[in-house]
Amino acid sequence: MPWIVVTLKPTGVDRARASREIIGGMIVQREIERATALLSQGKALDSVAVCGAILAREPKNAIAAHLMGLALKDTGDWAQGEDWLNFSIELEPGRGEFHANLGNLLRKREKYTRAAEAYEKALQLLPEHKAARRGLALTLYDLGRYDDAEAQCRILLSGNPADAEALAILGMVLANRGQEGEAEAAYRRAIALDPTSQVAHHNLGALLARLERAEAMAALETARRLGADGYEAAYNLGRASLNANDLGAAETNFARAVELQPGNLEAQSTLAKVRFMRGDPKFARALASACSANRDHVRLQLLLAELLWRAGELTGAETLLHDLLRRKGPNPGVQSTLAAILLDAGRPEEAETHALEAAAARPDGHDVVLNLVTILLARGAAEDARPFIEAQLRRSPDSQAWIAYEATVARVLGLDRYRELCDYEQLVRVFDLEAPPGWSSMAEFNAALAATLSDRHRFSNQPLDQTLRNGTQTSRSLLTDPDPTIRAILKAFERPIEEYRRTLATASDHPLSRANVGASKFTGAWSVRLQREGYHVNHFHPDGMLSSAYYVEVPAETQDPQRKSGWLKFGEPRYAAPTLTPERFVQPRPGRLVLFPSYMWHGTNAIHGDEARVCIAFDMRPVRG
Q1: Spatial CA neighbour of 99 closest among 137, 125, 79
Q2: Residue 397's CB: how many other CB atoms inside 10 A?
Q3: SS3 for 331-353, per residue?
Q4: What is the mean pLDDT of each run of 10 residues along the chain (625 residues)?
Q5: Whole-angstrom Cα distance, residue 495 to residue 499?
Q6: Spatial contact of 404 and 601, defined as CB atoms under 8 Å apart
Q7: What is the pTM of this model?
Q8: Backbone φ, ψ for residue 318 (5° rounding)
């Protein structure tokens, strides 16, 4: 940091005093230089001591005060560091670098709004301060102000198109706006300009992992070699390993992420789910340990309860939530989850009490209201559930969840709307596909497809957060899988989808008609393998317009029309009342594709033998041009 001493030529009786001031100024300058050097050498505590000595002599020395703030920041005392940086600005408010350094600390403390203000002030004073503009771009990104963040990056790049740091920040902005192709290009350009940028390599790898592309691992490994070894690097290496079906490496990396941030909900949830699917009976041990160490961390405790519930450990989940409510008081998220657990445990009256309290405290909470409606319908209180559903549909008219519940209430109350939404003969369509080009028959094709999928089914258990029971599901989306048999079957689905869409009515009040505009786009595709006693609980798909089941392999027992083992069923809600039984069944056959609205309740009957039932499912939603 520059320090300029201005001296005036003394005259007369002031000569001696001026000499003392010159000498004193030179001493202060040397001490400031010493404090700066100590700070740059990582000796923050020594720098604090030197700055303290200067300030004892000159309490209003702005540079010493600023250095004190920076040194305290480096010792980890961010609060006092911030106070000293603010004090230095009070003394000399016209120094742009002071405001920039304050912005850096405020951003580190996650005080993003104030950080942005500090960077903006720095740039008013020093418009060419590139570090301040980069800091502002990052802070605007933190605030979710992506357009403003991009504008700052563009300013930097207009002055220097080879600014690798600005390109890396731009990549982050574009990725979070869903502009994956442009984000990838920005990261690759940053890497070309600065091959040692661990940030650019890591963020490229994170983007590619999110897109489930195989190149993710190489980018992330390069970032690790360059020194990226924090939480984000470990977590994204876990994602990339999972995409590559390397389950052991995925678990190791997710465990490392949890070790680095034991309070991180995403990491704890992902690690527990991977361990559960790998058949680990102590799948939630890391989360349980973190909960024991952080008993007042409500969201962490709630996550543990939810995962135990999903794993069928209802008593443990219920006990944990009752304890949490006793210690921390009412909480709508906790009460709503407890209500769902009680419903699963066959205690709907208790469930309703907790669900009503949760909904009263959080009336706009989607999941909270959804739980309440589920419980009311399970108790036969359709009229009580109806106002909640209608209110949610006014807010989200195309929500597959609320359309599903609208249909259920209409069925219970005998309203015509039920048949409009759930015309099973017209809206559940069956297509028996022909072999794709390159295969002589569907039998030959399905045998090849089954072999491919078998290699992708590497887990031992079903996912914790899905409707599958006693089976496995592929971890990577089939949409990004390059295998030729998978590409061929996805291509074969296109004609039936377009045929289905052409037959839809055009009534404006029908959700399918409203959504049936634009080009077809898959929003997800996966494979499920049912094992002995495997089935799907009744559910709907929240992320599509059309959903599906394509049968690759089916056991012989599915041929019995009386038992209907493994058959797809429609019309029965998740928690069915006595009168709400299935209204249509579809027999699975190899090569058969079934298409239906995503909001329709559907599930499967269990299979009972040792032969597996293997299928592919996908969701599709049109995208307007």
Answers
A1: 125
A2: 12
A3: CHHHHHHHHHHHHHCCCHHHHHH
A4: 30 41 65 92 94 93 94 95 96 96 96 97 96 97 97 97 97 96 98 97 97 96 96 97 95 98 97 97 98 96 98 97 96 97 95 97 95 94 96 94 97 95 96 96 97 96 94 95 97 97 79 89 96 97 96 97 97 86 97 98 97 97 80
A5: 6
A6: yes
A7: 0.88
A8: -65, -45
